[in-house]
Design a protein that fits this description.
14% strand; Alpha-Beta Plaits; alpha+beta; 5 helices; Transposase; single chain
């Protein structure tokens, strides 16, 4: 059995990648976005955290969260979000023919990949690099030509706050080959 090591610093800031099962392009569809937003909101009421950055792409998402001061349990939050979304979307998205023995054993559906990728943010430079990566991601995947064209992102919030210029990422390619982002 695999022994996954996770960061566990209370109150820390974390970068995550979460992927749909078989990379299904579902997350940017309107109804599914509503279900995800509701699952996120309900989970945050029970287990608070701050969303520093978010990008929703058709088959995966990236985000940065900051947990409360004495809390390190991001897994319970992802479990809640995935479970609530799955409950809402099951009639629309569940594929019984994709359920194998392992999925049955772990009581899993066919909407999300089993695990998620996590990275504890180390310092301000690491934070900024991950923020840039998140916001540039739809350009990287060829979904848009400019960061500002992608609607499912916290980029627009940061433009309104004056942190990013509106044309950020339009003319410059962000290369950070030494980083891993869980894709």
């Amino acid at each position: 059995m695999s022994n996954y090591r996770r960061a566990d610093t209370p109150g820390a800031c974390y970068f995550f990648t979460v992927v749909t099962f078989r990379r299904r392009n579902i997350l940017t569809d309107e109804g599914f976005r509503v279900w995800l937003r509701n699952a996120l909101s309900n989970t945050r009421k029970r287990y608070p955290f701050t969303i520093d950055a978010w990008i929703l792409l058709p088959d995966h998402l990236h985000c940065i969260w900051t947990l409360p001061e004495n809390d390190n349990d991001f897994s319970v939050r992802w479990n809640g979000i995935k479970r609530q979304f799955t409950k809402s979307a099951k009639d629309s998205l569940h594929k019984p023919e994709w359920v194998n023995a392992s999925k049955q054993k772990h009581r899993e559906g066919t909407i999300w990949q089993r695990r998620f990728w996590e990275h504890q943010i180390r310092d301000d430079n690491d934070y900024q690099r991950h923020m840039n990566y998140i916001h540039y991601n739809p350009v990287k995947h060829g979904l848009v030509k400019a960061v500002s064209e992608w609607p499912y992102s916290t980029f627009h919030r940061y433009v309104n706050q004056g942190i990013y210029p509106a044309n950020w990422g339009s003319n410059n390619l962000i290369q950070d080959d030494d980083m891993e982002y869980g894709e």
